[in-house]
Amino acid sequence: MEAKKLRTIDDLLRSPEERVELINGEIVKRPMARSDHALVQSGLSDEVAVLKRKNGPGGWWIMPEISVNYSETQCPSHDLAGWRRERVPRRPTGVMEILPDWVCEITSPGHERKHLFHHFMLLQRHGVPDYWIISPEDKALIAYRLVDGKYHVVFSVEYGVEAAADRVRIPPFEEIEMDLRYVFGGED
C-alpha cells in the first residue's frame, strides 16, 4: 500500500481552482457561498470596521476570506481574521505567514466539522488567542479565548432563543458594542 502524498502550500498556490484551501495536506474546495453566510460575514465586518480605522478605538487589520499558512500542509482560508497593529504594524499582503490574533469562522451546512473540530484544534495548537464560531442557521455565536494553551468559552449566545441583548461586547473587541440583530441579518 502506497502512502498518500500530502499536498503542500506550493501545490495550493499552483492550483488553478479558486475557493480552495489546504487542510491536512489535501486541497479542499470551500463550500458554495450562501446568502445567510454572506449576510453574517458582511454584518460582522461592518460592526468591526471601526477597529480598522486609525482614529477608531482599535488598531486592527481585519480581513475577510484570508488564507493563513500555519504549516507546509495547513493553509485554511478564514471567513474573517484579524491582526493587532501593535504586533503587525505594516499592512499585511499575500498569503499570511503571521498568526492571527483573532479568527472567525461562519459555519456552512455539511462543513461544520471543519470549523468545530479541525480549525478549533489547529488554532489552539498554534496559539491563536481568540476564535469565534458563528452559525447563521442557528443564529448562534461562540467566542473562545486561549487560556494556558486551551480554548475556553468567554461568550456564547443563541440570538432570538434566549433573552439576549442586541448590543454586546465580545473579546477581543470589548472596546466596541456590536449589534447582534444587525450581525444576524435583522434590520439596522
Look up the CATH topology.
Answer: tt1808, chain A
Q: Report the strand count.
A: 10
Find the CATH superfamily. tt1808, chain A
Give a short account of the largest sheet. 6 strands, mixed
> How many structurally independent domains?
1
Strand order of the largest sheet: 3-4-5-6-7-8
> Architecture, CATH level 2?
Alpha-Beta Complex
Care to give the gist of this entry?
With 188 residues, this protein is an alpha+beta fold. It has helices at 9-14, 35-48, 112-126, 180-183, and strands spanning 20-23, 26-29, 60-67, 77-84, 102-106, 130-135, 140-147, 150-158, 167-168, 178-179.
Describe the structure.
InterPro entries: Nuclease_put_TT1808 (IPR012296), Restrct_endonuc-II-like (IPR011335), Uma2 (IPR008538). This is Putative restriction endonuclease domain-containing protein. Residues 12-156 form the Putative restriction endonuclease domain. The chain has a six-stranded mixed β-sheet with strand order 3-4-5-6-7-8, sandwiched between helices. A two-stranded antiparallel ribbon has the order 1-2. The protein is globular and about 55 Å long. It has a single domain (34-183), classed as tt1808, chain A. The relative contact order is 0.14. The protein is an alpha+beta fold and 188 residues long. It is built from four helices and ten strands; from the N terminus they run αββαβββαβββββα.
Write the layout of secondary structure elements.
Elements: H1 9-14, E1 20-23, E2 26-29, H2 35-48, E3 60-67, E4 77-84, E5 102-106, H3 112-126, E6 130-135, E7 140-147, E8 150-158, E9 167-168, E10 178-179, H4 180-183
Parallel strand pairs: 5-6
Antiparallel strand pairs: 1-2, 3-4, 4-5, 6-7, 7-8, 9-10
